[in-house]
Request: fold
Amino acid sequence: METLWPWLVVAGVGALHGLNPATGWMWAAAWGVHSHDRAQALRALLPIAVGHAASVALVAAAMAFGLSMDRVALQAAAGGLVVVFAALHLSDRTPKAARAPAGHTGLALWSFMMATAHGAGLMLVPALIPLCMGDTSAREISASGSLLLALAAVGVHTAAMLVVTGLVASGVCRGFDFGTRWLRSFRRKLRSATR
Reply:
């Protein structure tokens, strides 16, 4: 059971990240609501996963190789990218293509920036230490064994995040569908009552 706890923590933090609207479920839900297709919300999960996993893998790889990371510098760089993106998007000189709804690349970049800015990978460090630096057999083999464990942790974390993100985005899409149907029904009843 002692070796299972770090994996449960990795999955739990992934589920927690899936609940955070900044990490992607609101964008996935917006895609689904805008297109009137709930499947579109689920298609948005792939770029969200790529961006989030890249951010978490950056920290996990550094942890596996025993490198230290300056948390403030990493978060400041990601936050700076968000500010630059927002300033460009809000300026009057923004090209028409930049004002269009985000595509898969834009969603992956957003997911990477948000995960890095709020320290998604850094939250995993306490769970990665026993996995990568502990007395496990993979650690005795080489540093690459630690890297494989760290990448497995990134996979577990991202999978848990995607499950929760997909559930929340689908729930929001269903809620909008239900709300739209209810409003239409209410309007019909109101019109028939006023006649």
